[in-house]
Give the backbone structure.
Amino acid sequence: MRQVYLDNNATTPLHAEVVEAMLPCLRTEFGNPSSIHWAGRKTSAMLQQARAQVADLLNAQPHEIIFTSCGSEGNNFALLGSADALQGKGNHIITSAVEHPAILDTCRYFEERGGRVTYIPVDSNGAIDPAAIEAAIDSDTILISLMWANNETGTVFPIEQVVTIARKHQVRFHTDAVQALGRLPIDVKRCPIDLLTISAHKIGGPKGVGAVYVRDGVEITPCIHGGHQERHLRAGTHNVAGIVGFGRACIWAQEHMSTEVKRLSALRDRLEEGICSRLEYVRRNGDRISCLPNTLNLTFPFVEGEGLLLALDMLGIAASSGSACTSGVEGSSHVLRAMHADDMTLNSSVRLSLGFHNTAEDVEYVIQHLPAAVERLLAMSPAFDDLNKYDCEVISCEIDPHSH
């Protein structure tokens, strides 16, 4: 049975070049990069080379890159480190209602400590209005944190506009760019972001390593104490193998991004067209214009989403219903709820996210098997017996071939 992995927003396979780059760290180059002897100097040089490679992908300076264990740690560092550093200036953070749990849960913790958070709503496409962010700024606002691209729907936010607003009001700006890295161009010199979070395993790098870009002059308080590493901003022995792998993954992204964006966009569009042409009722969730090239979130009305995922798994197709960090957690997608989705959409949506390893043959395999799986589940759905309960005009598939 063919295996097709379409859950790349959760994690990606390692590039072969990344594995090769990491192997010396796992075999012979074992030194602690904080040590001053020959073994430490070797790994220290590898560490600094990787730092420069990550910085190059962002057009940042190497010393502005602070390595972390993952994107979630990076988001905690950016938010809570900023809140501590700026506590004398205010206690108000602005974010969106559709952020990753690493942001939303950190904001709730900030609220428990006495802080205030404004959660800006999105429209039915998952898009956000920059004017609503500007209207929420007050004299106590110390930070705006807005994801670059949504992990569930692929909707891309107008980061450059919001950065302009933040600088106009002298408010610090952070973006969770975990899903955008390697899929959208990021230039922190052209777009003067203060803090930016990224993660290796979303771009063909290893799990267990991430980074935060901290612009020169931005004051931030460490969240992990106990050592001098990372300019005294993040204590702990470096994950050298992971960081080296991260650097090599960034090189791959820099070399292939322009061609991959076109290739993945074409595969995504073919996947959507193929599925919609075979099913009468299906709807895409998210903004069609401002969107990631690899992400397709679809609602299959009258079909239970988890049941469809299990059926797809039996066919060798790996997909998901939302964030990997909320998988197994009871409750529907907070992203789709924030988009004013009805109960049917909340329970019947599936995310298909493509990656560098996916081929046209993978897409055709899914087009061949997914609609048939949906039809089988529809035949067992009591709700499907009474279409008059629903607005079928809204849920019918509508594809604009020029929308991408």
Q: What stands out?
A: The first strand starts at residue 4 and ends at 5.
